[in-house]
Amino acid sequence: MSELRCYTVAQVMEKLQMSRATFARLRKAGRLPCVEELKPRLGGRARFRADLIDRYIANQFGGPRRYFTTRSA
User: Fold this and answer.
1) Residue 69 lies in a domain
2) Domain for residue 38, yes or no?
3) Which residues, at least 6 apart from 12, have a Cβ–Cβ distance to it below 8 Å?
4) Which of 7, 44, 46, 68 is most buried, judging by how many CB atoms fall within 10 Å of its CB?
């Protein structure tokens, strides 16, 4: 069985270039399809699948990389 690479919250935020507040808000809203938390947590810390995040950054995730919706005036 191959070993699954993972990222910490700080590494994901750095790769996606966003603040902790933005990351938490988008994750809670389900707007980050690439973020899949690995269970169980290691040492109480959340870890996320690196392969999905890397594919998302490379725009190979199968969908648009939009975080926000546009508002009409």
Assistant:
1) no
2) yes
3) 23, 35, 48, 53
4) 7
Rounded Cα distance, 54 and 59, in Å? 9
Give the pLDDT confidence of 19-69 residue by residue, as tens digits.
999 999 988 988 888 888 888 888 888 899 999 888 888 876 555 555 555
Contact 3, 49 (CB under 8 A): no
66 part of a folded domain: no
**Boundaries of domain holding 38:** 6-57
Q: Determine the Cα–Cα distance for residues 46 and 62; give it in Å rounded to an integer.
A: 25
DSSP state, residue 50: H
- Total structural domains in the chain? 1
